[in-house]
Amino acid sequence: MTDSSTPRVLVLSGEPPPGLESLEGQAELRLVGEDRLAAELPAADALLVWDFATDALPEAWPRAGGPRWVHTASAGVDRLMFPALVESDTVLTNARGVFEQPIAEYVAGWVIALAKDFAGTYARQRDRVWQHRVTERVGGTRAVVVGGGPIGRACARTLAALGLRVSLVGRTARADDPEVGRVHAFDELDALLPEADWVVCAAPLTERTRDMFDARAFALMKRGARFLNVGRGPLVVEDDLLAALRSGRLGGAALDVFREEPLPADSPLWDAPGLLVSPHMSADTTTWLDDLAAVFVDNFGRWRAGRPLRNVVDKKLGYVPYATPADGGHR
Fold first, then answer.
1. Known catalytic residue: 184?
2. Prediction pTM value
3. Would residue 280 show up in a list of annotated catalytic residues for this protein?
4. CB-count burial class (<10 Å; 0-12, 13-18, 19+) for 146
5. What is the tens place of the pLDDT at every residue in 204-234?
6. Whole domain around residue 159: which residue ranges?
7. Do 314 and 195 have their domain in common?
8. Which of 8, 171, 226, 232 is catalytic?
9. Co-location of 139 and 238 in the same domain
10. Pair 245, 277: CB distance under 8 Å
């Protein structure tokens, strides 16, 4: 540390984040932008990546020195999985615990909106058309949630509460999971897709999961099934999804994440039949910034006291391994 009592903490952000006032006097907080990051990193003890959409860190990472702890105000850490950080002794943590339930609620809203054709209702209201229609039941339909971490589990629990029959797919199989009963392995996904009415992607982005939803995966789904992605954009081959929607293989879809963000105005996804587009906002609620700051402040206290940190990323896996309460873990 630069000083035993006041560690130097860089905050990568364009403006001061809310909720860090309690750290005054406990740390030397230095707000930096991308232009100053390379110059400031070598002398930093810790780094808060508040601007979690940045791509500046790999080039700015120092060859010597640098933070012993990096915390990102996001659930996904794929932007931080560059070799110099992965191979270093730097501890990486994320904001797990903030986003799970809001994303699960967003997914549930999508399922209901698609099943009940809210878009069609809004369109007819706009055009002052009174047209009685029938819609689909949600209860009793089958959902496959891909991603066995806390976001996927929250989605599975929330959808089950709506009466859906839910299968959860994770990295490894588990026959007696205390939260969801059975967890299927990724290798079982092909057998589950043909029976699913809803496929929810909440997986982390790793080399194994990149492009996992492609033409082959969509061809396995039953005709008319719906696909929802709240994971990462590169999990989906967007041209293949577009073709599946246009052909009628998929009955609808909803995307909150994209390979390129913001989604370009000329992207054909804007006009894809049956597709709901939202601008990477499924986790963002009225209190999310304060909630993100609270996770960092709590971890800062642990770090200063030499206690185990929350949400430590396994840099070989590319995410925080999930431990159920029965395993002695936390959500």
1. no
2. 0.90
3. yes
4. buried
5. 999 999 999 999 999 999 999 999 999 999 9
6. 100-277
7. no
8. 232
9. yes
10. no
Tell me whether residue 212 is in a domain. yes
Residue 274's nearest CA partner among 307, 304, 248 is 248
CA distances (Å), origin 313, targets 31, 130, 317, 331: 24, 53, 8, 14
What pLDDT does residue 70 have? Answer: 98
Neighbouring residues of 225: CB distance < 8 A, sequence distance ≥ 6: 196, 197, 198, 199, 250, 251
Q: Which of 261, 302, 307, 330 is catalytic?
A: 261
* Contact call for residues 162 and 138 (beta carbons, < 8 A): yes
Q: What CA–CA distance (Å, rounded) separates 159 from 165? A: 8
User: Across-strand partners of 8?
Assistant: 28
Does 59 qualify as catalytic in the annotation? no
- Which residues are registered as beta bridge partners of 171? none
Catalytic-labelled residue, pool 30, 165, 259, 280: 280
Residues 48, 164 within the same domain: no
**CATH assignment of the domain containing 63:** 3.40.50.720
State both tokens at 181.
């009963």
